[in-house]
């Protein structure tokens, strides 16, 4: 590995979040939605994930839903021989989130990933199976050694309060929700509440799915990026993790983009820059419905 990669890795390792069970993780991880969809990109995507590991972005987020299991298989190939370096997160579909179905779904994910245990297993979103059953059976998977810990995704404050009121519900270690500069709704209530619970947010779509018009064309992001010789997306990504409360999981199939994203860990935005971003992307003043994709 080059000395440049070592420096990037040091920056990535220096930005961390702490899960509710005390586990410390780097604030920049890797997403995998749509990976494995295009067989022509397979080797490049495996290389991208391995480059991410080289850079210290050890949290890899996947789901049984992604490509009907193809993303998990690709992740399995990427972490072959490097299992100990990776922190593997997968998600169960709501219809499978209880009883025998949960056990089978977890076995399926383990088998596609080629591992014995998931580091974190998330309920992908709330469905019709009562949370009480999901919690009970997540705890069973934990007792059986199939998963190390569990959490949830796409739950807003009301659902989170209900979850934590259940027996063993407060063993949930995180909530994974959509969060980026142009979608700050959770700052109004979910984030402050999670902070009180000492529970980090896992931010999905931290680049607003590649920037598009919201981030890519922002004059403010461009101005800050130019001053720092960075890219606007690096600034946008750095912004998501600066609070120390957020673990962001940008997805990229491109190893050069992986290094670029890892470089965001080297940025600490100054108050003046944060204020500029607040003007361009205002904080929510009222309750917003949870943003989803
Ligand atoms: N829990 C949930 O319900 C949920 C929902 C959505 C997503 N997720 C998770 O969160 C992850 C991230 O979300 P996402 O994939 O939807 O969106 P994202 O990470 O915000 O954006 C991904 C897009 O950004 C591009 N990109 C990444 N880095 C770039 C860079 N440095 N320069 C230019 N383009 C760049 C990627 O293209 P290239 O590949 O060409 O670089 C891809 O098109 C997912 O992969 C998944 O693991 C969870």
From TrEMBL:
<feature type="site" description="Lowers pKa of active site Tyr">
    <location>
        <position position="91"/>
    </location>
</feature>
<dbReference type="Pfam" id="PF00248">
    <property type="entry name" value="Aldo_ket_red"/>
</dbReference>
<protein>
    <submittedName>
        <fullName>Aldehyde reductase</fullName>
    </submittedName>
</protein>
<dbReference type="GO" id="GO:0016491">
    <property type="term" value="F:oxidoreductase activity"/>
</dbReference>
<feature type="domain" description="NADP-dependent oxidoreductase">
    <location>
        <begin position="28"/>
        <end position="279"/>
    </location>
</feature>
<feature type="binding site">
    <location>
        <position position="124"/>
    </location>
    <ligand>
        <name>substrate</name>
    </ligand>
</feature>
<dbReference type="InterPro" id="IPR020471">
    <property type="entry name" value="AKR"/>
</dbReference>
<dbReference type="InterPro" id="IPR023210">
    <property type="entry name" value="NADP_OxRdtase_dom"/>
</dbReference>
<dbReference type="InterPro" id="IPR036812">
    <property type="entry name" value="NAD(P)_OxRdtase_dom_sf"/>
</dbReference>
<feature type="active site" description="Proton donor">
    <location>
        <position position="66"/>
    </location>
</feature>
């Amino acid at each position: 590995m080059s000395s440049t990669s070592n420096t990037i890795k040091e920056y990535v390792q220096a930005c961390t979040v702490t899960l509710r069970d005390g586990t410390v993780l780097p604030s920049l991880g890797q997403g995998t939605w749509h990976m494995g969809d295009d067989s022509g990109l397979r080797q490049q995507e495996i290389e991208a994930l391995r480059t991410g590991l080289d850079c210290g972005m050890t949290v890899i987020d996947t789901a049984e839903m992604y490509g009907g299991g193809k993303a998990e298989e690709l992740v399995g190939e990427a972490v072959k021989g490097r299992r100990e370096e990776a922190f593997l997160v997968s998600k169960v579909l709501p219809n499978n989130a209880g009883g025998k179905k949960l056990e089978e779904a977890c076995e399926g994910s383990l088998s596609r990933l080629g591992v014995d245990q998931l580091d974190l297993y998330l309920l992908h979103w709330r469905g019709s199976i009562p949370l009480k059953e999901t919690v009970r059976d997540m705890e069973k998977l934990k007792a059986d050694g199939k998963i190390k810990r569990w959490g949830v995704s796409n739950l807003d404050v009301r659902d989170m309060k209900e979850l934590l009121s259940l027996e063993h519900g407060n063993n949930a270690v995180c909530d994974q929700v959509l969060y980026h500069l142009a979608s700050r709704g959770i700052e109004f209530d979910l984030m402050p509440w999670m902070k009180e619970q000492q529970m980090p947010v896992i931010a999905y779509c931290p680049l607003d799915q590649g920037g598009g018009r919201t981030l890519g064309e922002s004059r403010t992001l461009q101005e800050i990026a130019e001053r720092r010789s960075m890219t606007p997306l690096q600034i946008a990504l750095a912004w998501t993790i600066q609070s120390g409360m957020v673990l962001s999981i940008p997805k990229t199939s491109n190893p050069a983009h992986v290094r670029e994203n890892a470089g965001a860990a080297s940025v600490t935005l100054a108050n003046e820059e944060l204020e500029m971003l607040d003007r361009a992307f205002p904080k929510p003043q009222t309750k917003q419905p949870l943003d989803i994709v």
